[in-house]
Design goal:
With about 220 residues, the protein is mostly helical. The protein contains eight helices and two strands, in the order ααβααααβαα. It folds into two domains: about 100 residues; about 110 residues, no CATH class.
């Protein structure tokens, strides 16, 4: 029969004294069914309440686990940022060290005249890159030009060609007219073994300067 509505329940309660026995039996049955329905509803409500409590507990556990995961992610993010910062600092340090190394290597490069550099490349190719054989050719005037041989003789360091091969070299700017004259004078002084009160290099520079002055004066007169 189920639970009565509020109106039927009040009607039975107020009019039960004026009914007969059969009617009262029906009313009692209805009241019993009403009570049973209420008990069932209470039992179902209690079960729902327990289920709700259980679900609430599970939700709380899920929230706790989520919070733990969030904290773990924050820690990992912090570690990741720290690693990224460390990697950036390491990269910057390596870049600085690399630049310093490049600058150091650049400073150790030998400056060679163009013709000397060309002879060096040719001898390295002919000797298949062998350093000793190439240096030997320069020291003993083998397969190199007279200009290169003259340059070799003017160097104070006999290992300069070897240093150029190992550390690298750059080609100097083309010589000016005065540079060419000074070099030519010095070669002639050495060739004719002309002795003076000063060294040949200084004397050649003085002569070249004087020639340049004379040429400049002639151009002005024109």
């Amino acid at each position: 029969m189920g639970r009565m509505n509020q109106k039927d329940f009040i009607h039975i309660k107020t009019c039960s004294k004026s009914y007969g026995a059969l009617v009262l039996i029906d009313h009692v049955r209805a009241l019993v069914a009403h009570v049973e329905a209420i008990e069932l509803e209470l039992r179902v409500s209690k079960e729902d309440e327990e289920e709700a409590v259980r679900r609430c507990g599970e939700a709380e556990l899920s929230i706790i686990r989520l919070n733990q995961q969030v904290m773990q992610l924050k820690r990992e993010l912090g570690e990741s940022r720290a690693d990224e910062l460390q990697a950036t600092m390491s990269a910057d340090r390596l870049s600085t060290e690399n630049d310093a190394l490049k600058a150091e290597l650049e400073s150790k490069k030998v400056v060679l005249p163009k013709e000397v550099a060309e002879d060096l490349e040719a001898r390295l190719k002919a000797n298949q890159g062998m350093i000793y054989s190439t240096a030997y050719d320069f020291v003993h005037n083998k397969y190199i030009s007279k200009h290169t041989w003259g340059w070799v003789n003017r160097q104070n360091d006999c290992n300069l060609i070897t240093i150029a091969i190992v550390n690298g070299y750059t080609v100097e700017e083309p010589p000016t007219t005065e540079d060419k004259m000074r070099e030519r004078f010095e070669e002639r002084l050495i060739h004719y073994e002309i002795k003076a009160g000063i060294d040949n290099k200084t004397l050649a520079a003085v002569l070249a300067h004087e020639v340049r002055e004379v040429l400049a004066e002639e151009r002005q007169e024109e």
